[in-house]
Amino acid sequence: MTRTARALGARPVALVSSAREARRAAEAGATAVVDSSSRNPDEAIAELTEGQGVDIALDPVGGPRLGELIRSVRRHGTVVSLGFTGGRQATVGIMDLLAGARVVTGYGVHGDSGEEIAEGLDDLGRLAAEGRLRPVIDSRYALDAFEAGYARPASRAAVGSLVLEL
């Protein structure tokens, strides 16, 4: 997501939970990285954004991290939940939503029409052809190792995409 955000002109800030993830996020092009294992995320985001918060936060992990992301977003900002490898349940501070007038929404490509998916893939293909977008490949799995590949994101060890080789 970091490289896609940069290709679209954003200045992505990665919120991670380990030094290993911090290195990978920096390599992927994050303009800033906040490692919550060594720094308070609320304070770090406030410092990076001069107290304003980020415009939009994308959450591919879910679970307890959602509350942190909500607090990182500026007033009237948006959090988009994209995944649940960190868990299907999250604790959200209602005052974080109300006081900041923040928006939390979910997105899954399965809800898009074929035309919408094709348009998005065309846009990504154009960015790749222009050299503005290169995927981060975490690991590759043969088809007969599908279950191991599926388990990798759930382990929270994956940073980047997984490739299933047919």
Task: Explain the overall architecture.
InterPro entries: ADH-like_C (IPR013149), NAD(P)-bd_dom_sf (IPR036291). It holds the Pfam family ADH_zinc_N. It comes from Streptomyces purpurascens. The chain is an alpha/beta fold and 166 residues long. 38% of the residues lie in helices and 23% in strands. It contains 7 helices and 7 strands, in the order H-E-H-E-H-E-H-E-H-E-H-E-H-E. It has helices at residues 2-7, 19-27, 41-48, 65-72, 94-100, 114-129, 146-154, and strands at 13-16, 32-35, 54-59, 73-81, 103-106, 137-142, 161-165. The chain has a 3-stranded parallel beta sheet with strand order 3-4-5. A two-stranded parallel ribbon has the order 1-2. Strands 6-7 form a two-stranded parallel sheet. The radius of gyration is 17 Å and the shape is globular.
Strand order of the largest sheet: 3-4-5
Shape: globular
The first-to-last residue Cα distance is 24 Å
Overall SS class: alpha/beta
SSE order, one letter for each helix or strand:
HEHEHEHEHEHEHE
Number of domains: 2
Per DSSP, the total helix count is 7
Summarize the structure.
The protein is α/β, with parallel strands linked by helices and 166 residues long.
